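Support request from a user on the community tier.

User writes: "When I paste my structure tokens into the form, the page sometimes reloads and wipes my input. The last time it worked, I copied everything first. Here is what I submitted, just in case something in the input itself triggers the reload:"
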């Protein structure tokens, strides 16, 4: 299933689970989500196994191989924890470096940015899970297992689990770790996730969930992809007040994603942010219109930036050089992750950082 194709056939069937940890009201303590470039204790990822989500077994094996490649690359720089049910671990272990640890937490799909835990820290250094409940992008995909992952990890780590009062995904909001958030309304102010809540109410809850002070909204795109246009495939903070955004050189004004991307750029510029634009690839290995070719969907780990390359030598190099400028003290490693692009995501979507104490 491509996340650019909204398929009701795989919808629903998950519930809001709170397992383990200590559920507390957000007002009980103040905390912040550190920037992604802050030191990590580990990266958490998920092993995709569901043939209901990915009925083509050959393609599912390609996805698994891609996840293993990303995990093994990150593991050269920091520990990686890969979530997989015990019966699924034999196949996973065959493809993984011994630097990757397997945890027996059942999964369906691979999108740990969305179904995994959002980690935050108190001023004391104590870590917790600031919990945004995953519901399969508005009940569009099965999530009986994936809807439980964040709470399962909180229990395993014995971290407090603090409900945000929101349903959604961390891939739908971008934060600089210094008080500023940005998001598309389409991923949050949406009855498939937060019925009955206004944008102001959702903003207030997101600010508390991240320990942030201010938020920039743009409209986004509804119902054209399963995520309702997650911001992390378009624009990323690379530091306080600094943004890297992926835009086409020749926008198609009939394409709702291009129109929304330009709107997001203009809104960020109006807020006085420092913006660098990187182009989309002109040629790529996969030509499908549904393919997501996002250079912005990279992941920052200890000592490295793990990013995509799409087979366009010129534009791949432009994107790599931009990332190196924004992260001058880190290695920039680029991978062929075409299988993820075919299902509408990228490296950032497949990872979630556990901040170091």
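"...and here is what came back when it finally went through:"
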């Amino acid at each position: 299933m491509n996340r650019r194709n909204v398929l009701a056939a795989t919808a629903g069937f998950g519930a809001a689970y709170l397992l383990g940890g200590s559920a507390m009201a957000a007002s009980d303590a103040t905390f912040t989500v550190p920037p992604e470039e802050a030191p990590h204790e580990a990266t958490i990822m998920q092993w995709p196994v569901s043939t209901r989500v990915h009925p083509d077994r050959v393609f599912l094996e390609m996805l698994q191989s891609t996840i293993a490649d990303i995990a093994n690359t990150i593991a050269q720089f920091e520990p990686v924890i890969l979530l997989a049910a015990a019966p699924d671990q034999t196949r996973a272990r065959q493809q993984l470096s011994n630097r990757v640890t397997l945890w027996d937490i059942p999964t369906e799909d691979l999108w740990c940015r969305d179904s995994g835990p959002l980690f935050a820290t108190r001023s004391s250094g104590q870590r917790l899970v600031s919990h945004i409940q995953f519901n399969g992008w508005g009940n569009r995909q099965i999530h009986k297992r994936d809807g439980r992952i964040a709470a399962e990890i909180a229990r395993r780590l014995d971290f407090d689990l603090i409900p945000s009062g929101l349903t959604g995904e961390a891939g739908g909001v971008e934060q600089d770790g210094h008080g500023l958030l940005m998001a598309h309304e389409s991923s949050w102010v949406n009855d498939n996730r937060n019925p009955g809540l206004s944008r102001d109410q959702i903003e207030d809850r997101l600010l508390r969930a991240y320990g942030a002070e201010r938020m920039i909204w743009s409209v986004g795109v509804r119902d054209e992809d399963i995520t309702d246009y997650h911001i992390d495939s378009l624009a990323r903070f690379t530091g306080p007040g600094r943004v890297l955004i992926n835009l086409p050189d020749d926008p198609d004004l009939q394409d709702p994603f291009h129109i929304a991307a330009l709107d997001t750029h203009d809104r960020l510029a109006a807020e006085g942010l420092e913006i660098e634009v990187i182009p989309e690839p002109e040629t790529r290995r996969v030509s499908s219109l549904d393919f997501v070719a996002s250079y912005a969907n990279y992941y920052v780990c200890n000592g490295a930036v793990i990013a995509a390359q799409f087979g366009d030598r010129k534009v791949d190099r432009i994107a790599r050089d931009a990332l190196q400028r924004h992260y001058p003290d880190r290695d920039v490693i680029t991978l062929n992750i075409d299988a993820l692009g075919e299902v509408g995501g990228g490296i950032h979507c497949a990872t979630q950082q556990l901040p170091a104490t």
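Agent notes: The reload is a front-end session timeout and is unrelated to the input. Residues 8-355 form a domain with the L-arginine/glycine Amidinotransferase; Chain A fold (CATH 3.75.10.10). Residues 6-28 have pLDDT under 50 and may be disordered. Escalated to web team.
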